[in-house]
Write a structure and sequence with these properties.
By secondary structure, the chain is of the alpha+beta class. It is built from five helices and 14 strands. Bound molecules: 2-acetamido-2-deoxy-beta-D-glucopyranose (2 copies). Keywords: Disulfide bond, Signal.
């Protein structure tokens, strides 16, 4: 009798645990990072304030490699790609673009601009996401929502902005364009940075520079007050983030 009672209690505990686990699994969001570039990419991940740091903020992704990362409900943060990195065994080193303070694991630090960003705010109550060129461009990125409901359109900047980058915004290494600065970073004026008298969407309009970004990447966020069409929504999805 005693045995039966305790085993049925164990069974109900077990079922309860299964339920809790399946709920957790159903609600968490899976980010799948895929490196389509011909060279290794070192993705960086920065969590929003108070949110869980995923993968200690950074990892290495060889060409063709795919990695899945589970984010808790309500997570927010951004992904970017670091290029041309070399790290020693302790994880110290540098990257040509997107460096986060000379470490493989960014541990909360962001990437040095110019960097292409994939930004997410999950479960609020929908997921909001975009690919942003507000901090410039250093690698082609795309975000594809899978299995969600709603609009769930792809966010991407897959055109080679290195090539259309105006000379005054170019970042070069060994005479090659390796990244494209935002006009804000290059000129640091209120008009380009949407600060001061330009700190609102009525006064901060697209500029000749942001228009070049918008033309190359229509679904990406091209400056601080770019129209809301660049912020996409979906619910209950997982996300594939492709580099190149
Ligand atoms: C941009 O520049 C980098 C570094 O030269 C290069 O590897 C890459 O292929 C270029 N194009 C894109 C789309 O990032
Ligand atoms: C953008 O406009 C500024 C100010 O009018 C001008 O100095 C600059 O050359 C223009 N740049 C491009 C790439 O059109």
């Amino acid at each position: 009798m005693h045995t039966t009672a305790s085993s049925s209690m164990a069974l109900s505990l077990y079922l309860h645990l299964l339920l809790v686990l399946s709920l957790a699994v159903a609600e968490a969001t899976v980010f799948t990072l895929q490196n389509n570039c011909r060279k290794t990419i070192w993705p960086g991940i920065q969590a929003g304030s108070g949110k869980e740091l995923l993968r200690n903020g950074g990892l290495r992704l060889k060409p063709g490699e795919v990695v899945s990362i589970r984010a808790p409900v309500g997570w927010s943060g951004r992904f970017w790609g670091r290029r041309g990195c070399s790290f020693d065994k302790t994880g110290k080193g540098t990257c040509v673009t997107g460096d986060c303070g000379g470490q493989l694991h960014c541990s909360g630090a962001g990437g040095a601009p110019p960097v292409t960003l994939a930004e997410f705010t999950l479960d609020s109550p929908m997921d909001f996401y975009d690919v942003s060129l507000v901090d410039g461009y250093n690698v082609a990125m795309s975000v594809l929502a899978t299995g969600g409901t709603g609009m769930c359109r792809p966010a991407k900047c897959v055109s080679d902005l290195n090539r259309s980058c105006p000379r005054s915004l170019q970042v070069t290494k060994d005479k090659q364009v390796v990244a494209c600065k935002s006009a804000c970073m290059a000129f640091n004026t209120p008009e380009y940075c949407c600060t001061g008298a330009y700190a609102n969407p009525n006064t901060c309009k697209p500029t000749n520079y942001s228009k070049i970004f918008k033309k190359a990447c229509p679904s990406a966020y091209s400056y601080a007050y770019d129209d809301a069409s660049s912020i996409l929504t979906c619910k209950g999805a997982n996300y594939l983030i492709k580099f190149c």
